[in-house]
Amino acid sequence: MEARWQPDILGDGYEQQTIPLRSEVEGVDGAPVATLIRHLPRRRRLFQKRRMFEDVDVLYVHGWSDYFFQRRLAEYWASRGARFYALDLRRYGRSLRKGQVLGHVADLAAYDEEIGAALDIMKEEADDPRRLVLFGHSTGGLVLSLWADRNPGRATAIMLNSPWLELQFGRRTRHAIAPLTELGTKLDPLATGPNIDLGFYARAQQEVYDEEDPYEYDEQWRPNPSATVHVAWLNAILAGHAKVEEGLAIDAPVCALLSARSIAPVRWSEELTRVDSVLNVDRVARAALKLGASVTIERIDGALHDIFLSRREARTEAYSRMDRWAQGVLTPRIRPRG
Questions:
Q1: 3-state secondary structure string, 141-189?
Q2: What is the Cα–Cα distance from 63 to 226, expressed in whole angstroms?
Q3: Measured between alpha carbons, how far is 134 from 140 in angstroms, rounded to an integer?
């Protein structure tokens, strides 16, 4: 079926389409949808040299209590010839419908439906065989890592921006609370837990905001403090962490970008503008080594949890590291003459 693209809220050069989905949670809300956003590269001018990623498609998946709004990232890939796509997962951002519980899901494998549908649409639009780069931030990094493990041979490379691969409090705490979340999911999947987000991460983003390179987002889709945590969702996250701990077998090279340091945010300080105040980056770095046989860890000094929303110096360094890794892994194919 031909894709039905509509103008997107990000403006010129961005389009979106809605993907209908099956309802996987009985009695919670109406039938869910996902939203696929695309940003395509400009046509190559006559006699212009072939760009390095012209046979590459990128699929981006956002994190918890978030959605896609990062124009900078899309334009980085498109400027190098890649077709950039992003998913707003079910019950997030553009895909959130009236009466739905923001971000709710009881099994991370449910996202296989929209990921699969997005890849089908991307394939339909391709004239030639293309390589796939999966790009996940935070929870999206966990989702895509698990998907790649279940779907060998699909991705050419995987880029992770502060992926949530382990609980902030460590594996022992995760093992202790997992039986409780499993029981809670059976008794009352929408039971809520305490919100430990004190708003410091959002404040840190505001403090380092670059007016010369601005971005905007919808506070209803990206609330501060973050969305309410429900027990079934937390249980799904812990189950994903447990699978990572067991060890995945991702057959594509993986690059995990992380801040150099993390701090548990108990009170505000200027230092929070230079660290990951959401995850424990050392625990995530150790967990990342269990994703597959080829894993690169890049630590960015001064970076926030979302590396690409950090202050300019850290952001510039992150783009440089990503560019170096991508060029090494995605060496342009040599096409036969004839």
A1: HHHHHHHHHHCCCCCCEEEEECCCCCCCCCHHHHHHHHHHHHHHHHHCC
A2: 11
A3: 10
- Residue 55 to residue 37: CA distance in whole angstroms: 19
Answer whether 87's CB lies under 8 Å from 121's CB. Answer: no
Among the listed residues 180, 105, 187, 178, the one whose alpha carbon sits nearest the alpha carbon of residue 146? 105
**pLDDT tens-digit profile, the chain (338 residues):** 455 999 999 999 999 999 999 987 665 567 899 999 999 998 877 667 778 899 999 999 999 999 999 999 999 999 999 999 999 999 999 999 998 999 999 999 999 999 999 999 999 998 889 999 999 999 999 999 999 999 999 999 999 999 999 999 999 999 999 999 999 999 999 999 877 788 999 999 999 999 888 899 999 999 998 999 999 999 999 999 999 999 999 999 999 999 999 998 889 999 999 999 999 999 999 999 999 999 999 999 999 999 999 999 999 999 999 999 999 999 866 554 44
42, exposed or middle or buried, with CB in 10 Å at 0-12, 13-18, 19+?
exposed
Token duo for residue 8: 């997107």
Chain length of the chain: 338
146/126 Cα distance (integer angstroms): 25
Neighbouring residues of 94: CB distance < 8 A, sequence distance ≥ 6: 9, 16, 35, 37, 67, 88, 221
DSSP category for residue 211: T
